[in-house]
Amino acid sequence: MFELIWNINLLLAWLVGLYTFVHSVCMLAKCLIRNYLRQPLDLAKRYGKGSWAVVTGSTGGIGAEYCKQLAKQGFNLVLFGRNKDKLEELDAKLKKDNSLLQTQIVVADFAEDNSAKFYEHLYRKIQKLDISILINNAGAVIPEFFENCKLESAISCSNINMTGPAMLTRMFINDFLKRTSRTAIINVSSLIRVVPSPYIKEYPSTKQFLTLFSYYLQDNYGDKIDIQDLNPAVVTTNLNNHQIGPDSITPEHCVASSLRDLGQEFCTVPAMIHSFIGQMLFVMNKFMKPLYRATFVNNYEMEILGSFYEKHRNKK
Ligand SMILES: NC(=O)c1ccc[n+]([C@@H]2O[C@H](COP(=O)([O-])OP(=O)(O)OC[C@H]3O[C@@H](n4cnc5c(N)ncnc54)[C@H](OP(=O)(O)O)[C@@H]3O)[C@@H](O)[C@H]2O)c1
User: Fold this and answer.
1) Confidence class for position 316, pLDDT limits 50, 70, 90
2) Would you identify the family this protein belongs to, as annotated (predicted)?
């Protein structure tokens, strides 16, 4: 009897091991195919030639890059931002490189207002355009420890990272469902959401919301709308003080990966190194908590906060 139980346990252990091995090989193969073999779809054909892409946070690193790459593919652009001068500068630059490009500028600060009136007003400004891609990209981090952060900062962060994307999507969803071509919604989340980040709690939490929101959209509208949950780790932009390291990628790389996967993959991690880091942190946090805290939390996270404090000090 004992021998039988022992043998069953042994068999189960082998099966679990085999499953884990096959699963890891499949993940690796998928990652390699996605990063090195996959060809992007013809997005203009899929979403409608001459249709419009709305990009929030268009004046920053990843947002500006979306504008550049989508204009090249023949999309017209609605440039959302909170700074009119920056928007006009971007507009002029894009038009210089793409003589046929049409644009519309929308000045909106998502931190300032989260009322229904505010979003209705934004919607009315562009409702007549044939919008085929919505990119919820604007995002902000609170450069303060959660327990010390000002209430206004916490509310702003929630407004920019959660209310803005959810409300913009709500304003446009019915128009998207009526289109004859497919439509796309890209939500720019973050890989930091996969692990607890004790010092910068609010940002990962808001990104986790955005990912769950993407899952909801995918489940309910995936048959008509291509949803993408984009999860970068470090991208060298203003958000992280233009941090450069072995794990960082450029906004060009990040956006090219996102557009390559659009319509083909729901959850996109834009680089192999980012997939690896995400997996490593996830496993470390689950099985080696002290090591996770000693390395990621106490070094990496503090480094991020440190660069924010520095940036803040420099601004004063
Ligand atoms: N960089 C990374 O390592 C990284 C990693 C994972 C995810 N992400 C996500 O990627 C997205 C883009 O960030 P980024 O890296 O390109 O940083 P960025 O260069 O700082 O761009 C952020 C954009 O959001 C806009 N924005 C900030 N606050 C706003 C507000 N209150 N109302 C309207 N727009 C506002 C900024 O406008 P201004 O130009 O006026 O400041 C800027 O256009 C964010 O959602 C971020 O969370 C970034």
Assistant:
1) very low
2) Belongs to the short-chain dehydrogenases/reductases (SDR) family.
